[in-house]
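As a warm-up, study this chain.
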Amino acid sequence: MISKNAISMERFALLIFSCTLIFAFSVMFFFTDGKTYLSNLIVVASIIGMVSFYIHRYPVGFKNRHIIWVLLFYAIYLFVNRQVHGDQYGIMRAIIYVIFFTFLIPRNVFLLKAGCYGVILGGFGLGVISIWQYNHGVARVEGFTNAIIFSQTALTLAILNFWFSVSFSENRLEKWFHIISALFSLGALYLSQSRGVWLAFMVVITCFLLFKIKTKPLKYISITLGLLLVLGMLCLNSSIVKNRIDSGLSDVVNMENGNYSTSLGLRAVAWESAWLGFLDSPLIGVGTEGFDALKQEQVKLGLVPQALLNPELAHAHNQYLQTLVIRGGIGFIFLLGILILPAIFFAKEMGLVSAGVFIPISFAVGAVFDVPFEHQSMMYLYSFSLIFILFCHELKQDLL
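Now compare it with the structure written out below.
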């Protein structure tokens, strides 16, 4: 009877961990409060995982904990900075939840398949949502969040889907599901009209071609020329692309005329403010508690335009500058750590052409125009992507 209960508990743990992975890569983005639901699900999964492991003692966690330590050190610094002058509690909590999850996740191929299916579902879901919103008059689709977060999610799922189609598809059907899901994700990326994430996508493609061109120069030079041709045709014929480019050029003209109320204008003001704030407190920043007071003081002294007090500028619209002003130079080092160290780690473990390299690159470029690591859903997506890539790699190594 005890043995049967133990087996049932192990199966239940596999089920709840599988549901968590599927939720993280798909369902979280289908609801406005998806990140809250995911937090609750991770807690439940971790508790069940502890009980199940205590009963059955099956293999759990990771052999290589490099990524976990990188995330943990970042969370620790957020905690320290919060004690000094305020910081993002939700981001710190999300990282800790993910770390608990990683220590208790069963090393079972069933979870690998569940995560892959979650990535497929996520790509299809974002594509369907974007098409539905666009057909119902939403000029710039954004799902249930905002357009930039939506587009960063779409790019991440596109990378994961393309990578799984090459590395972990057991049959042609799975391979094509991943490819089609990736194309749906790219459709969502296109319709979200985020110029920063479009740039991230182009950087990822460029890196991929540069990494591969050494092995088969003629093939990848031909692909590069083909992509340039497609990009040129898209810029000439797509009203969406042309409008976004024209909008950016118009914003530059308005800034030259002293009008900072546009998208790029507000960003320029926020960037200047954040840089000046960093210069005032270069070591540990001003914290979230001093951020609003800093902006008020800067406007009062005439250091930056009045547009800085626009409600849309709740942050610096640049992760690097936001980190410098909130967490100072020390925090900036930790930020570079969670971007660079995982990419280096995966490059050594799996080669340059892997999702573990391209996802940090995409977030690093997207962070120039937004603050992904100030959003709990994006921190969940980034950390879950990294740990799941490592999980797949270790399981594949075990099966060899």
